[in-house]
Amino acid sequence: MDKIDASKNLRLLVGYSSSITQVCRQIKISRQQFTKYLSGKASPRLQSLQRICDYFGLEDWELLLPHEDFRKLIALRPPQGLSTNRSYANEFVSDIRNKSSPTDSLGPFLGYYYNHFIVKARESMIQRSLVYLFEADGMVATKTIERIANHDGTIGVSKYDGIAYYSGHRLYISEREKFLEQTIWHTTLYATTTKREQFFSGLGLGNTTDSVQDISCYRSIFQFLGRSVNTRDALRGCGLFGLSDPEIPAYIREHIENKIEIGENAFVAA
Fold first, then answer.
1. DSSP letters of 55-68?
2. Separation CA 185–CA 163 (nearest Å)
3. Which among 71, 105, 77 is positioned nearest to 91, based on CA atoms?
4. How much is the pLDDT for 78?
5. DSSP-assigned letter for residue 79
6. Which of 117, 174, 238, 261 is the 20 to 30 Å CA partner of 131?
């Protein structure tokens, strides 16, 4: 069995269902084990494969088809017992789930990063936060922590949860702030899987915790720290830094300011 094609096909099928939990409950396979099938870390044994195929109304050989052939099959014959008229929303969610698989292009990007950006309220300072990309439920999830010193000397902390996905040599991250759940932030970064880069430049767009009313766009530069780090030490490196602070790598200091260059009519990533 080609694990990559099988896991992609399975993720496509799950997109027709309301949740992974629902599928696991119906086919009587633990979510932990089913997640391994989705990520390609394991292949279902014959009995489990038969239960999966029976649930979705497929022959076992159909689930093992090359992914592009399988997509064409499902487009013509949606899974039985679920939606027979697949909605645009389900199509979109399934596509995002496939692009967020750690077994495909996203695998090389797992690990810890510093994210650098300059916000409107602190134009003379570079803000640095810690971002973690990791595997969860057959997808790549993200956690971001921001630590900022308040005027009274206390440390303010903001936390974000999100997902990452990869398409067209770009790394996309969509996150939501955990506490108030009013801040949504999207980051798009130039990224390639052909070689390991230390810095990834892009743009961030959304509404900030400083003002949920304003929509802002900032230059963003990710700095890769490693697959594993001492998180306590990494968090100590977060906060605000001057534009010329040597703690911030020179490449970042030279490309992070939110300026539109002469001749440009749009905000473009470095």
1. HHT--HHHHTS-HH
2. 11
3. 71
4. 76
5. P
6. 261
Q: pLDDT tens for residues 60-82?
A: 888 889 988 888 888 888 776 55
Residue with tokens 């900030």: 208
Contact 117, 200 (CB under 8 A): no
3-state secondary structure of 32: helix
Give the number of other CB atoms < 10 A from CB of residue 56.
Answer: 23
- The domain boundary, picked from 36, 71, 99, lies at 99
Q: How many CB atoms lie within 10 A of CB 14?
A: 23
Which of 52, 54, 66, 51 has the alpha carbon at shortest distance from 14?
Answer: 52
Instruction: Please list, in sequence order, all residues whose beta carbon lies within 8 angstroms of the beta carbon of residue 227, skipping any fewer than 6 positions away.
Output: 110, 111, 112
Tell me the pLDDT tens digit for each residue of 28-54: 899 889 988 888 888 888 889 988 988
- 58 neighbors 79 (Cβ within 8 angstroms): yes
Q: What is the CATH number of the domain that holds 42?
A: 1.10.260.40
- From residue 240, give the alpha-carbon distance in Å to each of 46, 125, 249, 263: 55, 6, 14, 31
**Claim to verify: residue 150 and residue 93 sit in the same structural domain:** no
Is residue 132 over pLDDT 90? yes
Kind and range of the H or E element at 202?
strand 199-206
Query: Could you tell me if residue 102 is left (phi over 0), alpha (psi between -120 and 50 degrees) or otherwise beta?
Result: alpha
